[in-house]
Design a protein that fits this description.
This protein is α/β, with parallel strands linked by helices. It has 18 helices and 24 strands. The strands form 5 sheets. Strands 1, 2, 3, 4, 5, 6, 7, 8 and 9 form a 9-stranded mixed beta sheet that branches. The longest helix is centred in the middle third of the chain and has 18 residues. The chain is globular and about 70 Å long. The structure holds adenosine-5'-diphosphate (2 copies). Pfam families: ABC_tran, Fer4_RLI. Keywords: ATP-binding, Nucleotide-binding.
Length: 542
């Protein structure tokens, strides 16, 4: 495709034009001979939210250190002392000129939210309130605590907070600062969709109402779409070089990314396009049931939390998506199915082998990745296993590393591979998107899908990334209720009914992008939002 059409060129006229390769021009920064090089820089702008879309290891942190004035980029001359005057010369006449002048004059102050919020307890002792009060430079704290729903845990020790709670505390702590430039390295990990949308709104308000410059890296595309005004796509070869494109409109940037082809740059970044079904998949004739389970109930302690589950059937060979807010009982249901928990009401007597990937991954044996995976499957290393599992999950580069040295995203990919490599009747994956960058999500999604199709395997996936769910699931199980108090799980439903059930609870509707049919969150109370709610169609248009 030439990038103009989504589908293959109808005239068969154009071959792939350009595959990414390191650029001829001088980089913005090079760490040393044969070391990582960064090309381009994002453009922060007061009053607006600038997004970066691209893989990890592509130079985002390097770029932000330059934009924060913590490091003078060397323009590729790594053996000379870099100066801001040289940087200014390079960017004179571009959209960055003003910004670089301010950095040179020491006029830019920055607040940043780190990517891995799990590390916060290691760096800070005390309650969430202690942490937050030290950062409240704008007197905005009470409002953030309220809107991010941190109140119930704010006086607890930081060490006791869950991932989702830490993420919201870290967001409040960053946004409450009084700075010129805010850098947020991922906002969505561990948050459910409602919380992601709230976080996006708070960030937009900070930019618009307080006239601040905000730069965000985000891998959940539906949220990035809602959050950013302009977008830089980042591509290249992680660890070797990274190119940050000129700014694009968010809509175009995401469309081009999904298409796999950047028009202005004339650059193909992926061999095939990612496409969404505009209409709900038609009800298919079902295969054999894998399990039929009765109505179930489970509560903890003396009933602080209780879950009830409608009776339902899971069919052989389907991918069943599981959606719902945090704290509503999704993991509890997973543990009922694995037999780790026993229901109070109802009986699960199936003799199923279940391969389970939990949300929080603990693989801490001092063992190499290859040794670990070959202990799980005797298919390890076969060309079939490499094609189906190792390649799409990008495991080859980390095979010789120790499990204990892996980053969050690397650990996630090993855990997904381990789960799919077992011989089982049912594969249950709890939040496979966590810590994966956008390209890894795409790859992991197709690996899981293909695995299900080729093996007639039955897969249940719990996740909050709606694009991933759309690409993965055949049917949906929807949880609702009151988080931490009571949860209700629907029986598995067709995609249309499931999406309507789920999104009406959240009060969010999606429209379709005209060019790519990609789902986009509607502005609340926009004409489309109101029409779709009236018609009861929250996701699939008529
Ligand atoms: P991202 O934030 O996109 O994950 P980074 O900017 O942190 O990427 O890093 C990009 C690449 O630069 C990585 O391969 C990293 O190892 C390398 N890198 C980062 N800092 C240095 C340094 N001081 N010296 C040499 N290489 C570095
Ligand atoms: P989800 O997976 O939807 O986020 P969970 O099933 O993990 O939800 O938890 C639902 C509720 O049950 C939460 O309020 C959680 O704190 C509580 N809970 C989970 N496990 C236990 C347990 N072992 N003892 C007491 N309460 C628990």
């Amino acid at each position: 495709t030439c990038g103009i059409c989504v589908e293959k060129c109808p005239f068969d006229a154009i071959e792939i034009i350009n595959l990414p390769s390191e650029l001829d021009e001088d980089p913005t920064h090079r760490y040393g001979e044969n070391a990582f090089s960064l090309y381009g820089l994002p453009v922060p702008e007061s009053g607006s939210v600038t997004g970066i879309l691209g893989p990890n290891g592509i130079g985002k942190t390097t770029a932000v250190r330059a934009l924060a004035g913590e490091m003078v980029p060397n323009l590729g001359n790594y053996d000379e002392e870099p100066t801001w005057e040289a940087v200014l010369d390079r960017f004179r006449g571009t959209e960055l000129q003003n910004y670089v002048e301010q950095v040179r004059d020491g006029e830019v102050s920055i607040a940043r939210k780190p990517q891995y919020v799990d590390q916060i307890p290691k760096q800070f002792d005390g309650s969430a309130r202690d942490l937050l009060e030290a950062t409240d430079e704008r007197g905005a704290l009470d409002s953030y605590i309220d809107r991010l729903d941190i109140g119930p845990v704010v006086d607890n020790d930081i060490e006791t907070l869950s991932g989702g709670e830490l993420q919201r505390v870290a967001l409040a702590a960053t946004l409450a600062r009084d700075r010129d430039f805010y850098f947020l390295d991922e906002i969505s990990p561990y948050l459910d969709i409602g919380q992601r949308v709230t976080a996006a709104r708070l960030i937009r308000e900070l930019a618009e109402e307080e006239d601040r410059a905000v730069l965000v890296v985000e891998h959940d595309l539906a949220i990035l779409d809602l959050l950013a005004d302009t977008l830089h796509v980042a591509y290249g070869e992680p660890g070797a070089y990274g190119v940050i494109t000129d700014p694009k409109s968010v809509r175009n940037g995401i469309n081009e990314y999904l298409k796999g082809y950047l028009s202005n740059e004339n650059m193909r970044i992926r061999p095939e396009a990612i496409t969404f079904e505009e209409h709900a998949p038609r009800e298919t004739t079902k295969a054999e049931p894998l399990v039929e389970y009765p109505e179930l109930a489970k509560s903890y302690g003396d009933g602080e939390f209780s879950l009830d589950v409608e009776a339902g059937t899971i069919y052989n060979g389907e991918v069943l998506g599981i959606v719902g807010p945090n704290g509503i009982g999704k993991s509890t249901l997973a543990q009922l199915f694995t037999g780790d928990l026993t229901p109070d009401v109802g009986e699960l007597d199936f003799a199923l082998d279940i391969s389970y990937k939990p949300q929080y991954i603990e693989i801490d044996q001092p063992m190499r990745v290859d040794a670990f995976l070959s202990s799980i499957t005797d298919q390890f290393g076969s060309s079939y296993w490499n094609t189906e599992i190792a390649n799409p999950l990008q495991l080859n580069r980390i095979m010789e590393r120790n499990l204990t040295d892996l980053s969050g995203g690397e650990r996630q990919r090993v855990a997904i591979a381990a789960c799919l490599s077992q011989n089982a009747d049912l594969y249950l994956l709890d939040e496979p998107s966590a810590h994966l960058d956008v390209e890894q999500r795409v790859q992991a999604t197709s690996a899981i899908r293909r695995y299900a199709e080729n093996h007639d395997a039955t897969v249940m996936v719990i996740d909050h990334d709606i694009y991933m769910m759309d690409l993965l699931a055949d049917r949906l199980m929807v949880f609702d209720g009151e988080p931490s108090i009571e949860g209700h799980a629907s029986k598995p439903q067709e995609m249309r009914d499931g999406m309507n059930d789920f999104l009406s609870d959240l009060d969010i509707t999606f429209r379709r992008d005209e060019r790519t049919q990609r789902p986009r969150i509607n502005k609340p109370d926009s004409q489309l939002d109101r029409e779709q709610k009236r018609a009861g169609e929250y996701y699939y248009a008529e």
